[in-house]
């Protein structure tokens, strides 16, 4: 096949089907009829002499060679966007579509805070939001299925750029009337490991809670599938847990700002900084993207914007030091 026969539009069709695993939804994204999209992909497959997709009545799967072609197609499209940005003088700017994701324990509480500023600063930017677990989000980011992710730092791996945004403290969520309610101060040492409730394996918050409490990966006997289920387990009196402050602020706001939520059955306490160090247990939230992304400058501007407007209850990512 001659290079002149390749169409960037056809590559966009292929990438859309690979990401959505559905020809109809891919056609909607690309603003084209499904028959036209299917015909162009068939034409590309014939020209390449291979099948990109396994087509069944229930789902669409990438073939092994199709996976390699799609990965390269994403690279070609990214470089094409860089070329267009250079041509119109907007190299590095946030334009077009931004696929932004966050970890499950952050997205529902942070997105409402940042969206007004994002829409105001980049009114023509099309935002596609999603959530997931850290490992899967980083895999999608490296594969080009996401443009940027909001998660807890640090992250490992080459080819990624990261900017810290803010420090999010953990609070202790406990059943109303718990023995720690009346304690004069609260330290991690006051927690009973047998009472500690955790998210199931695969959630980074689980690992962060275990590390904060100095427990092994086997610590905590009862697990929850999500943060809100974890909150309801506390309300049911099953134990205590470490809760990110944004999840606490969001719950309190939803229940008219009451300090105890879930019908008054859950209370929250801050940790004593003098007991556990200059900062309470918590996590640093950052923005991560591919270092090769042509919109690197715009993504750093996005990080600056998010740092300037810290969510309630959070602190600057780097602690202030004395002059």
From TrEMBL:
Give a GO cellular-component term.
protein-DNA complex
Which keywords fit this entry according to its UniProt record?
Answer: Activator, DNA-binding, Plasmid, Transcription, Transcription regulation
Q: Does the keyword Kinase apply?
A: no
HTH lysR-type domain sequence ranges? 6-63
Q: Name one GO molecular function term.
A: DNA binding
Per the record, the domain of life is Bacteria
Protein family per UniProt: Belongs to the LysR transcriptional regulatory family.
Name the record gives this protein: LysR family transcriptional regulator
Native species = Azospirillum oryzae
């Amino acid at each position: 096949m001659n290079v002149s026969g390749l169409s960037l539009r056809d590559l966009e069709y292929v990438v859309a089907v690979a990401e959505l695993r559905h020809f109809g939804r891919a056609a909607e994204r690309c603003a084209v009829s499904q028959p036209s999209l299917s015909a162009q992909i068939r034409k590309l497959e014939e020209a390449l002499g291979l099948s990109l997709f396994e087509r069944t009545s229930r789902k669409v799967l990438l073939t092994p060679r199709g996976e390699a072609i799609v990965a390269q197609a994403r690279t070609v499209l990214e470089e094409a966007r860089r070329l267009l940005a250079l041509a119109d003088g907007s190299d590095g700017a946030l334009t077009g579509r931004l696929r932004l994701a966050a970890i499950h324990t952050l997205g529902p509480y942070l997105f409402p805070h940042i969206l007004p500023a994002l829409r105001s600063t980049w009114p023509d930017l099309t935002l596609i939001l999603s959530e997931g677990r850290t490992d899967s989000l980083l895999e999608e980011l490296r594969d080009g299925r996401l443009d940027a992710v909001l998660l807890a730092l640090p992250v490992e791996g080459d080819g990624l750029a990261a900017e810290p945004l803010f420090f999010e403290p953990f609070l202790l969520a406990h059943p109303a009337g718990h023995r720690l309610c009346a304690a004069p101060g609260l330290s991690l040492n006051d927690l009973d490991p047998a009472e500690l409730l955790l998210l199931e394996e695969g959630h980074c918050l689980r690992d962060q809670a275990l590390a904060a409490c100095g427990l092994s990966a086997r610590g905590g006997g009862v697990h929850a599938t999500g943060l809100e289920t974890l909150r309801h387990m506390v309300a049911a009196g099953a134990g205590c847990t470490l809760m990110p402050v944004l999840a606490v602020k969001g719950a309190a706001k939803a229940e008219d700002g009451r300090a105890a939520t879930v019908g008054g059955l859950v209370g929250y306490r801050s940790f004593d900084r003098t007991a556990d160090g200059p900062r309470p247990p918590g996590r640093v939230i950052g923005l991560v993207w591919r270092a090769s992304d042509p919109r690197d400058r715009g993504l750093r501007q996005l990080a600056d914007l998010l740092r300037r407007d810290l969510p309630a209850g959070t602190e600057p990512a780097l602690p202030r030091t004395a002059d």
